[in-house]
Design a protein that fits this description.
Largest sheet: 5 strands, parallel
Number of strands: 14
Number of helices: 44
Radius of gyration: 34 Å
Oligomer: single chain
Length: about 1000
Amino acid sequence: MAGDTGHGQQLRFTVLGPVRAWRGDEPLHTGSPQQRALLAALLLRGGRTATAPELVDALWGEEPPHAALAALRTYASRLRKAFGPDADALVSESGGYAIRVGLDGLDIDTAERLAAEADKARGAGDRGRARDLTNQALGLWDGEPLAGLSGPYADTQRARLEEWRLSLLETRLDLDLEVGCHAEAVSELTALTAAHPLRERLRELLMLALYRSGRQAEALAVYADTRRLLAEELGVDPCPELSELQQRILNADTDLNVHFSADRPTAGPTFIRPAQLPATVSDFTGRTAFVDELSDQLATSEGRVMAVSAVAGIGGVGKTTLAVHVAHAARHHFPDGQLYVDLQGTGPVVAEPEAVLGSFLRALGIPDSGIPDGVEERAALFRSTLDGRRVLALLDNARDAAQVRPLLPGNEGCAALVTSRSRMVDLAGAHLVDLDVMSPEEALVLFTRIVGTERVGAERDAAMDVVAACGFLPLAIRIAASRLAARRTWTVSVLARKLGDERRRLDELRAGDLAVKATFELGYGQLEPGQARAFRLLGLADGPDISLAAAAAVLELDLDATEELLESLVDTSLLESAAPGRYRYHDLVRLYARSCAERDEQPPAERTAAMSRLLDFYLATAAGVYVLERPGDQLLAHLTPTTHPGLTFTDRSAAGDWLFAEAGCLLACVRQHSGAAGETLRRAVDLLLAAKDLAESGADSRQYEQAATALLHATQAAGDTRAEGRARTVLTHVHSLAGRFAQADEQARHAVLLGRACEDPIPCCYAANNRGIISIYQHRHEDAEAYIGQALAAFRADGNRPGEASALSNLSRTHLATGRVQSAVHLAEQAIDLYRESNVSWRLANALYAYAVALTHAGRHEEAMARLMEALPVFRDNRQRLWEGMTLFRMAELYLATRKPAKAAAAAEQALAQLRGIGGEWRRANILTVLGRSLDAFGQSGRAHACWTEALAIFEQLGSSEAAEVRGLLAPVAAA
C-alpha cells in the first residue's frame, strides 16, 4: 500500500492544526509555507487528482507568479524527497498530482470516520458511545486548522473545518445533556456563547443545560439576551426552536428533563455500571415459588418496587439470601448495573437515606461536585441519572417504608428489591412477598447440601429433628449444618441431641428467636477459645463492617492470626466475608455476639479494653495520615496518647484512600464512644481532629458533623473542659466550611476561652485562627487581625511552623482588606517559605492561594494566575473540593480583572459546580456575583441580572454586607 514503508512505519499527515507529516513517530520536514500549502491542497482532495491549474489557483489565487507551474513541480519533487521510501505516495497523473494515504493516515479522515461511527451509535441509542467517539474526533483538532498557511484556498478550507468543529462540538454538547451531564456542560457552553454570540444552537443548549441544573431564571435570561442581540445585530427574531424552548421552560415542561429510551443502551463515560451485589450462596435451596414470582416481576419491570418481608419480625428466615439470589439471576434484565446497600434497619443507627443516595450517585459516576445537599435533591438526581437505564437496587435490611421511599428508582426499566422485618403495606405500588420459614423438605435439602448426602441419608429422621429444632430457619440450619460438617466424629443424632438440650435451656424465648438462638448457642459452644473470644469481641464494634487490620487491633493479635480466626468463623457461618479483608455479622448474630460478650467475657473490663484498642487503632492511623499530609504540624504532639498502634503509610495517596474508605467505620467508632468519659472521650474527640479531612471532602461531611455534635454534648455532660474545647474547635471548622459563620464564630469563641482556661494549645491555635478567618468573611477586619495575631502567637509558642504559616496567610488577607497590599504580599511570601521549609505538601497550596489573592490586588496578574494554576491540581489530587472550587472562583476574578470575561464566566461556572453541596450559600452568592459581572461584560446582561438577583436574595437572607454591592449592580437595570 502507498504510504507504508514495509517496516510498519506508515506515513501520517495532519491538517486539523499545523500541516505536518510523520513516518511512524519520526517527523518529516515539509518545507516552506507554499510547499506545505501544496501538501494541504492534495491531502484535502481525499486521494483524488488535482490538476495543475487547480493547484496553482489554490496556492496563489488570481495572481500566480510567472513560473507557477515550475514552482509547483519543484514543490512536488521536494515533497517526494521528504517522503523518502514512501515517495510513491505522491503520484503524478493526468497532468496533475494526488496523494494516497493509508487507513487513518490523515487526521481529517480519522475524524470523519469517528463522526460517522458516532452518528451510527447515536441512531442505535448508544449515546454514551456516540459521545465518546465525538470527543475522540474533536480531540484530533490541534489549534487552528491549516495553521500558518495563507491564500484563498486555505482560508476557505479553514473556515469549513472550523464550522465542522463547531458542529461536532454542538453534537457532543447535545449528547452531554442527553446523558445527564448538564451541570458540567454549563461552563463550556457559557464560554462558547461568548465566543460565538450569534450561534443560536449553542444558546439553545445553554438554556436547556441551565434549566436542567435548576437555574430557570438564568435559562430564560439567555433567551432574552439572545432576542435582544439578534434584533440589534441582524434585525431578526430568534429561531422557532429557541422560542419554543423558552415557552416550554416557562411552562416547566417535564419533558425537558433528562429522558432516554428505555430499550436502548445510554450510559456515557461518566455513567459507571455498578455491580455491587454481594456474592450469592452456592448452596441456595428451595424457595422455588418465591424465586419464580420475584423473577417474573423483575423480568417485566416497569418501575415496580418489590418488598421481601419476613413474618412477625422473625430474623434469619433468609430474606437477604433470597433477594441476592433473585437479583443475580435477573442481572441480564438490568445491564446498566446493580446497586446494593445494607440499610442497617435493625441496628442502633440506621443508614440515612441522604448518605445512601450520595453513595449510590458516586457509584453511578456522579462526582462529589455534582451531588447536592438534601434528601429530596439527591433523590431527584438519582432518578434523573437512572432515567432510561435498567438498574436494579437491592435495599437490604430496611427499617420501614419511610427509609426506603427516597431510595426507589421510580423509573420505567428500573426495579428495587427491598428486604425488611416489617411488612411494608404502606409502600405504595410494592409487590409484597411474605417469606415464611422453609418447608421441611426444603430445610432438609439445605442441610443435606452442607453436611453431605451420605451422612444425612443414614440418619434421615435425626436430620429432620435437627432442621425442626432449627425452626426451619435457613440461618439456623446453615450454622448447625456448618458445625456438623466441621465435626467428622459427630453423627447427626449427636447434633440433634445437643440442639435439643440448647432449646430446653432457652425455653423462655419466643418460638422464632428460640430456634435461632439455640442454633447460635450450639455453634458458639463448639468454638475453640480463641474463636469464641474473637466472635464475642468483634461483635461489640458498631459500623457496617470491620477491616482485618481493625479486627486485629480489637483482638490484640497479628494480622495472620486474626485472618485465620476470622476465616474460621466465616466457615462456621457465624461471620460473613463482605469483601477481601473485610468482615461483617448478620444483625442477629451481632446481637447474639454482644450478649455472649456481656455474659462470658471475663473480666468485664476486657470488653471496654477491646473497644479502647479499636479507638486507639483508628486514632493512631488517622494521626499518621494527618502527619503525612501535614509534616511539622504540632497537633499530633497534643493528642491524647494511644497505647496500641495503627497502620503506617509511606504513600500519601494510600493514606488518603484509607481514611476515606474507613470513614463509615471510623465515625461509627466515634459515635460509639460518645457515652464515654475521661481519656476515652478525649481520644474520641481527638480522632475527629486527626480525621478533619473527612469534613472537607463533602462525601462524609454530614456524618462527621453528627459525630462532632454528639461528642460536644458528651463532653459537656462529663464536665471535661479540655475535651469540650477541642469538640468546639472541631465544630468551628465544620460550621465554617458550611458557610454558617455565626455558629462557627460562637463555637470558636467558647473554644478559645476553654483552651485558655485549661492551657490547651489546640483551641488557642486552631480555633483562634478559624475565628480570624470567619471575621474576614464577615468584614470585621479589626477583630480578624486581633484573632489571627493571637493564633500566630500561640502557633509560635507551640513551635508549630505549618500553623504559623497558616496564620500568616490569613493575616495577609486582613492586610489586603484594609488596603495594605504590599505587606499582604510579603506576609503571603513568608507563609510559602515556612511551608516549604516544613516540606508540607498540599497545605502549601493554601498559601499559594492566599499569595495569588494578594498578587491580584497588587496588579501582578500573570504571577497570580501562575500561583492559582499551581495550587489547583494540588487541591484536586487531595480531594479538597472546597478549595478547588474557591481556587476556580479566584481564577474567575482574575480573568475578569484582565478583561477576559468569557474565561471568567467559565471558571465561575466550574466553581459553582465544584462547590455544589459544600461551602454554604455565602460562597455561592459570591461566585454568582462574579459570574454576573463576567456575563454582563460580554453582553449577556439578562443572565447577569438573574445571577445577581439570586446572589442578592442569599446575601439578604444571611444579613451579609455584600448585599449592598449587588444592589448597586442591579440598580442600573432597575432604572432602565
